[in-house]
Amino acid sequence: MNIVPFDDRDGYIWMNGEMTPWRECKSHVITHGLHYASLVFEGERAYNGKIFKSIDHTNRLYNSADILDFKIPWGTEEIESTKIELLETMKLSNSYVRAFAWRGSEMIAVSAQHTKIHTAIAVWEWPSYFDPDAKMRGIKLDISSWRRPPANCAPVHAKAAGLYMICTLAKHEAEKKGFDDTLMLSHDGFIAEATGANIFFRMSDGKVHTPLPKTFLNGITRKTVISLLQDEGFEVLERDINLDELQNVTECFLTGTAAEVTPVGKIADYEFKPGNLCKKIMDQYSDLVRS
User: Fold this and answer.
1) Where are the domains positioned within the chain?
2) What is the pLDDT of residues 114-171, one digit of tens each?
3) For 12-125, CATH number?
4) At 146, which helix (H) or strand (E)?
5) By three-state DSSP, how is residue 172 classified?
6) Torsion sign over Cα 92, 15, 4, 168
7) Domain at 132-289: CATH code
8) What is the three-class DSSP state of 62?
9) 12-125 and 132-289 share one CATH topology?
10) Does pTM top 0.70 for this prediction?
């Protein structure tokens, strides 16, 4: 695999108020965000030069910072306008947008009351993950041994770096076994989501079921897809879902900024055939983000 490292690319990153050459954007190794995971971020997609639900992502970034007990030193209007400026500067139309903020190097201890809050935005080219025909074959998910922590043990409703440590471990575990991703359960054994995407099931009752976002992010794409399903007349039930209910699933798909709408063909030993529902929601979501 020919990997282009992210520290050796052309272009610019907006960092702490300035357009800085990409290779010059540095943070010291003794940084609170690195050692204590005090970093929040957003993953966004631009289609035809327009960021889908940009302000929703920006508002969530600020909410995540509030949950982690720090204040981003830039207004939402500055963040919004900078995203557009970056897309124009980088001459990108279809791309990934990452805005993030983290605690600096003034204090390296559990307490971090007097650290500077750094903020940056980077954009890079990001075509579609899969072609539609490949996606309709459905990806394969394992069932992870790692579980989502309860809301009183971690800031589960923040998009915070530290929460993704178990996602990395879970996905590595699955990939080593030949799966594309993995299904994660909540601490109390209910179905939660994949490592970086929410999950939906069409059950044999014809209704669409999706886990309650009690221990994970209520994704922006998730909320968008629920609206699309309801507009199509589908009843969407948000509830606790047991693992053994997978035997009643007829179609399954993931949703997320990166995943968009991705059909699932297999979870462990349970197999499904992506069908009309997956195709319809894939097409409608694609039309919506490009409208």
Assistant:
1) 12-125, 132-289
2) 999 999 999 999 876 556 676 889 999 999 999 999 999 999 999 999 999 999 999 9
3) 3.30.470.10
4) strand 139-148
5) helix
6) negative
7) 3.20.10.10
8) helix
9) no
10) yes
